[in-house]
Amino acid sequence: MAASKRHFTFAAAALTAALAGSGQAQAAQCGNSAGGFETWKREFIAENRGKVSANALDALAGTTYSTATISADRGQRSFKLSLEQFMAKRGGPTIVKRGRALKRSQAALFSSIEQRYGVPPGPLLAIWGMETGFGAVKGNVNTLSAVATLAYDCRRSEYFTDQLYAALTLVDRGILTTSTRGAAHGEIGHTQFLPRNVLKYGTGGDLNETGAALSSTANFLKAHGWQRGAGYQPGEPNFVALQGWNAASVYERAIAIIGRQIDED
After folding, report:
1. Which of 71, 129, 168, 182 has the greatest number of C-beta atoms within 10 Å?
2. Transglycosylase SLT domain: which residues (predicted)?
3. Are 184 and 191 in contact (CB under 8 A)?
């Protein structure tokens, strides 16, 4: 072996040992089945001792691999439908009818939100109706297990690892617990906020309470470029804020149409 090669090998070995000693060794390995979840979890917890509170890591230790989450993640076929098919499948006319009634019955709430954030009732009601049927179906999957499962799953591990850190912060703040339940990807509340969005855009209060959820949704839209008084149909200034809410084109257009029909009533 040449001296230069030997020097490089020794240096590389020293670097590897240093990284291992400083806690910067290779991260916990993702997987594509339940088999590696417990190992991944132990590695993740070991890597984060001293960085994440013991209470939050204990909560993570109690999570289980969520087959319901993986099934939902692999089965999002409705976003491939045409706009007309999507509107029919999601019950667009029903959302419009119920949304108009709620706009009238909760006029004071929506007026207060619009005054503060500049967002009219229509898009908020469209999102609320589309996400949970106005709170009727908020999901029954353990939230921490859902987020941990997706952080482990190789398909979008980096994205959901960020969500997992946010979820563990919410555990420390008492916003999430080991018994919190919601949608299959870890969304919670009336309008289905992921953990990072709770941290960034939540306006305080329980997102299972209507006012807090709708205010937080309006705050999200404002932070994504919503302009008071501007239109929100495709090509108009506020459509970009709806795109921030959901990346699926068919969803964005459906929200714009339903919101307009509610606002025009």
Report:
1. 129
2. 37-232
3. no
